[in-house]
Design brief:
The protein is of the alpha/beta class. The chain is about 45% helix and about 15% strand.
Length: about 250
Amino acid sequence: MRQIRGILFDAGDTLVRPKAGEWFPRQHFVDAFRAQGITHANMDRFREALDAGLRYLNKHHALAVTEEVERDQFHTAYELILRALGISNPTEDLIADILRPFEEDVGMEPFPDTVRVLRRLKNAGFRMGVVSDNWPSLDRRFRTMGLRSYFDAFVISALVGSSKPCESIYRVAVEEIGIPPEHLAFVDDRPVNVAAAETIGMTGVVISRYGKVPETDLPVISDLDGLIAIVIQETERPPGLRETEDPR
């Protein structure tokens, strides 16, 4: 049985979740429209409009090498969303009102089990990293949430010019964490990303946080406690792990 010495995690819907229940909250738009006295927005088209903004972000996010560029991209994406909602000339104040909740707060929070399990794994001697399709501000947001110190590697797709499931982003994470793939586990909520990690030798684990079990032959867990059983069994209890360790 091969020894797992490190674990790489996806971020969103794996370690953290959106505070508002969704990553691009409809309510932020509703509140901004109310504040600006806008009554003609076609909210029946919200999903279609959001898709237009997301397509822009997905196409350009690899160019967001700083938080300033990231903010410009989100500004453009929200302008596209507003135009799709029927607001042909959105003002800077309106866009600022929509962006403000996410800029003034991290917009996300750890799942209830995240800190407890990360602490246990770190105390057990595992090296850990994050591999996320995300923007530069994720590092700052993880610091604000008190999570960043758990990770030896922190790979953000916008900064490396590659997204999951492309092999290159996994290779960057392997180099950063300093552990060969065959001694790494990879945890993500998307089976396609986990399968890609397995192709380069990692032990893949799918996490399904919201109750819907994906169709996959890969191991599936519903929370991070399920990961403990997998990696400790794989490692046959690495040095540093104690049977009586405080799980808090």
